[in-house]
Amino acid sequence: MASTFETRIFINNEYVEAKSKDVFTIHSPADGTLISDQVHSAGEQDIDAAVDAAQKAFKGSWGRQDPIERAKAMFKFADLIREKAQDLARLDTLAMGSAISTQTMGYRIAADLFTYYAGLADKIHGEAIYPTSTGPYKIVQREPIGVCAGIGAWNVSSILFAWKVAPALAAGNTSIFKPSEKAPLGVLALGPMIKECFPPGTINIVNGAGKTGALLASHMQIRQIAFTGSTATGRKIQEYAAKSNLKRVSLELGGKSPSIIFEDADVDLAAAKTAESTLMNTGQICAMASRVYIHETIADDFILRLKKAFDAVDQRNAIGDPLAETTEVGPLADQAQFDRVLSFLEIGKTDGELVIGGARRGQTGLFVQPTVFKNVARDSRIAKEEVFGPVITVQVFQTEEEAIKLANDTVYGLSACLYTKSIARALRVSREIETGSIAINDWYFPSLGAPFGGVKQSGYGREGGMEGLNDYLQTKTIQIKEVAVLPNKRSRADCQRNQHQYYLVMKSILRSTFDGNVRKRRASVGGQLVS
Ligand code: NAD
Q1: What keywords were assigned to this record (predicted)?
Q2: Residue at 2 is within a domain
Q3: Across the beta sheet with 437-440, what order do the strands follow?
Q4: Same domain, yes or no, for 24 and 114?
Q5: pLDDT band at residue 426 under the 50/70/90 scheme
């Protein structure tokens, strides 16, 4: 297939060939056709060039820019992304097979993230700490950090790009973003829009796989790195940062999110929402609720309704060609992801009971059936590890305490869902669940103004909202000592002259006082000088 899109890297507002001369290949997961075998992969010299460009922009044209001008540039960029959302989405759909409707939504959310953070660019204030018995007056300034880097996973390159770059820019930093090698084309196509809105070096985009990511995480001039991807890679990022310049790190990692469905839940709603979360992006969503814990009295009813919800998607022909506008569910992202999901299906069949799906779907493309297992052994890999595909396990419980214990029995802590009609129970259980986000009577989907991120081995740091901006700011505290200030500005010579005049005045006062005293004493002793 002829290359009808950009495959080079984008540095200093220009597309350039990678000096590394390395290229990589992308095939369509929908039908196996070649998308490109010429995607440039950034090496050490390319990363150095991107850092140099970003450093210059940070020290000058972007970093020293009036915040209101920064906001205007970001608003404009947001509008351009919004206008071209579907064209950009098409490029990611070609590469990683997610439905074009889903990826278009991703670019619209990315545009909204730029709008949201543009609005905050001129509202970054510090604080003043007044003199107290424990110290003098202090001003706390919130300053940008410098050159920041972002590394994305492949499931929604658009949102991951915006989550990292928009708050970085709003805070006055500059950015280098590496999209995943499985879905780099849409973000890479932003080059002309970046050039239209920002000074050279403000946003740089470098393609490549793990080796390129490692160069960013290890770079001595990069001050902050925000990573989205697997927990295993997140550990490496932290290690590279520690071994290089101790750059700041934020990690948005994997999940194995639980969904607790209580006996008083609206079972129809729970089934519809579970199906939606399992099928959206073909289950390749970090916050997908992949472990369902359901009260034993409603489990069979729930599974029946879940099957109906999956069948309904099939009946309206919404699984298939990801470029068709009516498609809701496409193939998995690539052969490696397909093989991984199929291997989990085999584990599920051995360690549990297959109730829905369980195989590849059709013979063309990397499609799999939505799959449900029940009664899976608790220590089975499919019960513990992230599958990142349309596969869930269902297990029954009897009591609230048991449900909480099961939900927390994981190394992950990204997100959770609770289905119940009792708000008191929902809030009580929310307090006990060890995750960064919880949805009640829904599955969790991040929004612009709220922080999103994990606890435990799902990572740390937050994206979205004010918390997301704070990750790109550092404080500087300035202490002020109060000193007596002369009424007018005077030179040292003026002061010395003043001191001399002061001395003369004082001398004359003292003399007149002394003379006066002498006169008084003379008078008192009959005109005799006594001292
Ligand atoms: P991955 O860890 O394999 O790759 C993620 C990114 O890291 C890619 O850009 C890749 O090129 C890069 N990378 C790989 N090895 C590297 C190394 N040694 N040094 C530096 N960079 C390296 O993950 P993936 O398969 O692309 O994405 C799926 C994972 O992402 C899942 O675990 C999913 O849960 C997670 N995810 C999390 C969130 C979140 O917000 N928490 C969002 C989306 C995806």
Answers
A1: Oxidoreductase
A2: no
A3: 353-356, 371-374, 391-397, 289-295, 257-261, 415-419, 437-440
A4: yes
A5: very high
Residue 519 CB coordination number (10 Å): 10
Nearest CA to ligand 1 atom 18: 210
Could you tell me if 102 and 46 lie in one domain? yes
What does each C-alpha distance from 480 to 168, 474, 476 come to in angstroms? Answer: 30, 20, 13
For residues 139 and 164, membership in a common domain is answered with yes
φ/ψ of residue 244, rounded to 5: -100, -105
Asked if residue 237 is part of any domain, the answer here is yes
287 and 240 within one domain: no
CB count, 10 Å around CB of 288?
A: 30
Among 158, 176, 228, which is best to mutate for testing ligand 1, by the most ligand atoms less than 8 A from CB?
228
Q: Same domain, yes or no, for 159 and 285?
A: no
Separation CA 295–CA 270 (nearest Å): 12
Alpha carbon of residue 342 to chain centroid: 30
Residue 125's CB: how many other CB atoms inside 10 A?
A: 8
Strand-strand pairing, 174-178 and 127-129: unpaired
Which of 435, 457, 478 is the endpoint of a domain?
478
196 plus 282 within the same structural domain: no
Check whether residue 44 and residue 139 sit in a common domain: yes
pTM for the model stands at 0.91
Q: Probe ligand 1: pick from 41, 109, 176, 180, max atoms within 8 Å of CB?
A: 180
Cα–ligand 1 centroid distance for 233 (angstroms):
6
Domain count, the chain: 2
Query: Rounded to whole angstroms, how far apart are CA atoms 428 and 421?
Result: 13
With a Cβ cut-off of 6 Å, ligand 1 is lined by 151-155, 178, 180-181, 209-210, 213-214, 217, 228-230, 233, 236-237, 252-255, 286, 386, 388, 414, 454
Decide if 181 is catalytic.
no
Q: Are 368 and 342 in contact (CB under 8 A)?
A: yes
521 falls within a domain: no
- As given in the structure block, the two tokens for residue 375 are 């009664």
Q: Is 409 exposed, middle or buried (0-12, 13-18, 19+ CB in 10 A)?
A: middle
DSSP assignment of 114-154: HHHHHHHTT----EEE--BTTB-EEEEEEEE-SEEEEE--S
Print the domain residue range for 369: 258-449
| Residue 331 resides in a domain | yes
Encode pLDDT of 181-235 as tens digits.
Answer: 999 999 999 999 999 999 999 999 999 999 999 999 999 999 999 999 999 999 9
- Specify which residues 140 forms β-bridges with: 127, 477
Dmax (CA) of the chain: 134
Residues 131 and 206 in one domain: yes
